[in-house]
Design goal:
Layout: H1 2-10, H2 15-25, H3 29-47, H4 51-68, H5 71-78, E1 87-95, E2 102-109, E3 112-124, E4 130-141, E5 145-152, E6 160-166, E7 171-175, H6 180-194
Antiparallel strand pairs: 1-2, 1-7, 2-3, 3-4, 5-6, 6-7
Helix pairs in contact: 2-3
Length: about 200
Amino acid sequence: MGFFLWRWQSIKEKQLALADRLMEKTQTPSRKSHWKTPLKLLFTVKTGSKPSETVKGKLSLGARIIQGGPKENTFKQIFDMEEGEQLLKASQCHLSTTAGPIAGLLFISNQKVAFCSERSISVVSPTGKVIGTAPYKVLIPIKKIKGANRSENVKNKAEKYIEIATGDGFEFWFMGFIQYEKAFNNLQKALSLIS
């Protein structure tokens, strides 16, 4: 697996060809689906600025989930759950920012969509001095969401995005999902509960 991971990231122009060859080598449908998750996972590792940093972040996030229990407990610890609120889906993904993608967890509940970064970011004063670190968090009440759209990179169909637009004019772009369809379907389900 180590060689495969290195090869995947070092030859970017041959990524799709490599994925196709791997899919062709497996004859049965059950074996083909076996390859889908590792290929999607490798795309998420590729999305980070440095593969080693991304893998470290994924491991630290995994450790946080193991310590806190199920993802619902992690959601409760990071964001307050209201009475009657149910977590529909928690997905590892990246939030697109002007500074680049930030890896983390996207939580979709019946009352809000929330994102928390895997690693803390530096908080800098206007003078440029680092005054501390904090996780990057986004919380969007479902009632404030005007719409959610799916999108994909025209040049690379494997790169899929979810755009969330709010009534007050903000847009949030999420990408690098391992289970893109499930995340989008749960977001649509949460939005349908409000309307």
